[in-house]
Amino acid sequence: MTETTRESRTLLLNAALDGELDAAGMLEIEARLAADPELAAEHRRLIALHEAIRARAPRQRAPDSLRARIISMAQPQNPVRATTPRRARPWDAPYRALAASLLLGILLGAGAVDRFASPAREDDVERDVVAGFVRGRLSGQPVDVATSDRHTVKPWLAGKIAGSTTVVDLKADGFPLVGGRIDVVGHTPVATLVYQRREHQIALSEMPLSVPGGSIGPRQENRDGFSLLEWTDGGRLFAAVSDLPPAELDAFGAAFRRAAAAEREKPSKP
Hints:
Blueprint: H1 3-17, H2 23-35, H3 37-56, H4 64-73, H5 93-110, H6 122-139, E1 145-146, H7 150-158, E2 177-185, E3 188-197, E4 200-208, E5 219-223, E6 226-233, E7 236-242, H8 246-265
Antiparallel strand pairs: 1-2, 2-3, 3-4, 4-7, 5-6, 6-7
């Protein structure tokens, strides 16, 4: 192996460990690791190195003098006509933003930013949904419970996640139900239904809205070469992903929303 090839492989492994690759890139790495024992050994070595650095490397604290220097640089340059100048206070409006920026820099330097991380962004949700679809296809087992009977899928899911799952029969619309599984989006287990369209599959994940009262779509985009369709209904977010053409995924979404609305309108059994 040439030095250039070795260096490029190491850079690729580091990118994977740092979470810089998309779903397709991660799948490519996993395939290479399975086929190349030398590369797998290098991957294990890098994992051990990352963990050792995280556990043992000293974390430097920004000196207090840095804060004083930055605040002094932000002092107004124009003379103040008041006879008795008022000292700037840390809670004054011009300095609140400065203090926030300084605090962020200190947190980043101290490695503490993860403690204050915001909830998963919309982009993270889309990435996780697509990754779940790809894993299901490659594993050869896209569902945990394989059945076209929605009355079997719904209670199976209910015993494993919080809240109810919308399960409808779309066989008449050309999208028969294959089954269901549990995916993880962010850190939350979510219900995923799998429907069939000829040789293609559609994975539909249902989850709570990250921002209550928000509204989406229907909105479609291309993500890592797959069609992704999102919409909200009843305070829930639905995300469907497939390798179908966009128009057919739109048709699936419309059929699912119609069936879900019809199901809600049915009188409840006494």
